[in-house]
């Protein structure tokens, strides 16, 4: 049994449409979530919205220019590439930005800890010097009293 290509297109578009609607629903529901562990839910939602926008533009155009295979293929390929680049950029760029900020903060923390350790060692040496001088003064005072 062979289905006409129009029926197959309708089934595929219907299935993908249901998945997109479900994705929009999930993106909308997680939009208000403010958890540190799920800090990229807003960007995932924006990625889903971009996919929906590009699908709304691409599906009718691919159906209109269905007779011109080369043009349809080029347009759909460009749209898929653009959609993938936008989605990955929306998810990965903020993560990389966060990682770089943590690295800067960590390096500053290491520098301050190193400076703190150096000053602590210096303070301990100074305290040891004072204790040694104190012992010497005690010995001198004991000798003077004898």
Automatic annotation (TrEMBL):
<dbReference type="GO" id="GO:0004965">
    <property type="term" value="F:G protein-coupled GABA receptor activity"/>
</dbReference>
<dbReference type="InterPro" id="IPR017978">
    <property type="entry name" value="GPCR_3_C"/>
</dbReference>
<keyword id="KW-0807">Transducer</keyword>
<keyword id="KW-0472">Membrane</keyword>
<feature type="domain" description="G-protein coupled receptors family 3 profile">
    <location>
        <begin position="12"/>
        <end position="115"/>
    </location>
</feature>
<protein>
    <recommendedName>
        <fullName>G-protein coupled receptors family 3 profile domain-containing protein</fullName>
    </recommendedName>
</protein>
<keyword id="KW-0325">Glycoprotein</keyword>
<dbReference type="InterPro" id="IPR002455">
    <property type="entry name" value="GPCR3_GABA-B"/>
</dbReference>
<feature type="transmembrane region" description="Helical">
    <location>
        <begin position="43"/>
        <end position="65"/>
    </location>
</feature>
<keyword id="KW-0675">Receptor</keyword>
<dbReference type="GO" id="GO:0038039">
    <property type="term" value="C:G protein-coupled receptor heterodimeric complex"/>
</dbReference>
<feature type="region of interest" description="Disordered">
    <location>
        <begin position="124"/>
        <end position="146"/>
    </location>
</feature>
<feature type="compositionally biased region" description="Basic and acidic residues">
    <location>
        <begin position="135"/>
        <end position="146"/>
    </location>
</feature>
<dbReference type="Pfam" id="PF00003">
    <property type="entry name" value="7tm_3"/>
</dbReference>
<dbReference type="GO" id="GO:0007214">
    <property type="term" value="P:gamma-aminobutyric acid signaling pathway"/>
</dbReference>
<keyword id="KW-0297">G-protein coupled receptor</keyword>
<keyword id="KW-1133">Transmembrane helix</keyword>
<feature type="transmembrane region" description="Helical">
    <location>
        <begin position="71"/>
        <end position="93"/>
    </location>
</feature>
<feature type="transmembrane region" description="Helical">
    <location>
        <begin position="12"/>
        <end position="31"/>
    </location>
</feature>
<keyword id="KW-0812">Transmembrane</keyword>
């Amino acid at each position: 049994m062979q289905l006409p290509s129009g029926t197959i297109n309708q089934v595929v578009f219907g299935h993908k449409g249901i998945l997109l609607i479900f994705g929009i629903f999930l993106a909308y529901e997680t939009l208000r979530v403010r958890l540190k562990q799920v800090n990229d839910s807003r960007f995932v939602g924006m990625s889903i919205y971009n996919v929906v926008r590009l699908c709304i533009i691409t599906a009718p155009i691919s159906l209109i220019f269905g007779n011109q295979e080369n043009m349809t293929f080029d347009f759909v390929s460009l749209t898929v590439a653009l959609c993938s680049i936008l989605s990955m950029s929306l998810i990965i760029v903020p993560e990389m930005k966060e990682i770089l900020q943590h690295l800067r903060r960590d390096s500053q923390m290491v520098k301050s800890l190193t400076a703190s350790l150096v000053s602590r060692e210096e303070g301990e040496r100074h305290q040891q010097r004072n204790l040694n001088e104190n012992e010497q003064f005690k010995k001198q005072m004991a000798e003077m009293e004898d």
